[in-house]
Specification:
Elements lengths: L1 H17 L2 E3 L18 E2 L6 E5 L5 E5 L4 E4 L4 E4 L11
Antiparallel strand pairs: 1-4, 2-3, 3-4, 5-6
Length: about 90
């Protein structure tokens, strides 16, 4: 069951990634345009309800988590509020 929940979260994150919008990120993606980093989600430092990915063009792309979920740094996907690791990021 836990595997299924993780798989669903990953699929939701992938669908959200497809709708990513480029943002002015300063140098967030500087040095992260190789295949190891491009497309890999990471926490948006300003909001727990969204995450960033770096494109091969060096731009950061923001994606918004589905309703009632937040980006979970430990899992690398959007998950239920109880499992999210927001830290100091705005909820």
């Amino acid at each position: 069951m836990r595997y299924l929940a993780g798989l669903i979260s990953t699929l939701v994150a992938a669908a959200t990634l497809a709708a990513a919008v480029p943002v002015d990120s300063g140098d967030v993606c500087s040095g992260h345009t190789d295949s190891q980093h491009v497309g890999k989600p990471f926490a948006d430092p300003s909001s727990c309800g969204q995450y960033l990915t770096c494109g091969s063009d060096g731009k950061a792309y923001t994606s918004i988590c589905p309703a009632s979920t937040y980006y979970d740094v430990a899992l690398g996907v959007c998950s239920a509020t109880a499992k999210a690791s927001c830290g100091d990021r705005k909820v």
